[in-house]
Amino acid sequence: MKLASSPAERDLYETLAEIYSIIVTLDGLEKAYIRDAVSEAEYTETCSRLLKQYKSTLNDETVAQEFVDLETFKRTWGVCC
Q1: Which residues does 57 contact at the CB level (< 8 Å), separation at least 6?
Q2: 3-state secondary structure (DSSP) of residue 61
Q3: Cys-Cys link to 37, which of 24, 32, 45, 58 (CB 3.0-4.6 A)?
């Protein structure tokens, strides 16, 4: 991972890190729901909130350009969910 060379680049990396954490959290939430570790109501509420955050984050044009799409992001940043 290269270091940011400007405040704007640092903000971009922080935002991409937030997207990464949302993806990993959604994966864990799905696994917990399948194992009945969370109720359907908790699952629905949490999943909806995380998806809203995900979509809101991608509204930024700079972030969307770097993100490209989910498969590209997963491949670029080593997400294996």
Answers
A1: 15, 18, 19, 22, 63
A2: helix
A3: 32
Q: How long is the chain? A: 81
pLDDT tens digits for 11-67? 999 999 999 999 999 999 999 999 999 999 999 999 999 999 999 999 999 999 999
One-letter amino acid at 62 equals: T
pTM for the model stands at 0.83
- Exposure class string for 35-68: b at 16+ Cβ within 10 A, else e: eeebeeeebeebbeebeeebeebeeeeebeebbe
> Cβ-count burial of 29 within 10 angstroms (0-12 exposed, 13-18 middle, 19+ buried)?
middle
